[in-house]
Write a structure and sequence with these properties.
The protein is of the alpha/beta class. It has one domain (about 5-220): Alpha-Beta Barrel (TIM Barrel), CATH 3.20.20.60. It is built from 11 helices and 8 strands. An 8-stranded parallel barrel has the order 1-2-3-4-5-6-7-8, surrounded by 7 helices. Helix 8 (about 160-175) runs parallel beside helix 9 (about 185-195). The longest helix is centred in the last third of the chain and has 17 residues, at about 235-255. The protein is globular, with a radius of gyration of 19 Å. The structure holds 3-methyl-2-oxobutanoic acid.
Amino acid sequence: MNSKITVDSIRAMKARGEKIAALTAYDYPMAKLLDECGVPLLLVGDSLGMVVLGYPDTTHVTMAEMEHHVRAAARAKPNALLGGDLPFKSYETISDAVANAKKLVAAGAEFVKAEGGREILPQVQAIVAAGIPFCGHLGMLPQHVVEEGGYKIKGKQDAEHQKLLNDAKALSDAGAFAIVLELVTPPVAKEISEKISAPTIGIGSGPDCDGQILVTQDLIGAFPWFTPRFVKPKVNCAGEIKSAVAAWKSSLASPAK
Ligand code: KIV
């Protein structure tokens, strides 16, 4: 039997140079399956808004929806460390950030994640001071996709590169146990990973982060209407579902005698 993964286990993986595999899970069966695969870090990401709830982006996801899906995933009682995203506008003030982080913990999250750097540092410090493990998220911030006008790569310009590095240092120093780097140029992601103590978990940020996270639907081809360019699905679940349904339908048309 595998043992329970903690924040310290995730930090120890960076210290040992062991890559950290992380995936999203939004419900009981997926959390249980991924846990049985030995994935140490599971996230009920607000990407659930797009790949499960049918919203155009993550800005529509509510606290109630996050709590509902965290509860479902937590019922799998995974050995993996299970976290939940603080949704858009749920951490604008320090008191909202702490109150909503506590709600996700009450639903079963063992850590919370929020998007942003030094601009949310007071919220991060308050969450950590409340004893709630915190994971940062820098680079392309999906909750800001509307104002940024798309999913754009970060770190190409010197100023952006320096800002990412300073934000990552600030989050790590504030006690973030890990930091997601989304769509950060690979050399900048590598530099950040080398310069901060918190493990970096990359998504579309090259191979040199301390770990990698993917939206599970992208990895298994279960959301065929959009696949990010940096993901190569390992299986075509959507195709398998269509074939299974077609086979079942035709068995109805001409039942075996
Ligand atoms: O919402 C999400 O699923 C995420 C990960 C992909 C990092 O933020």
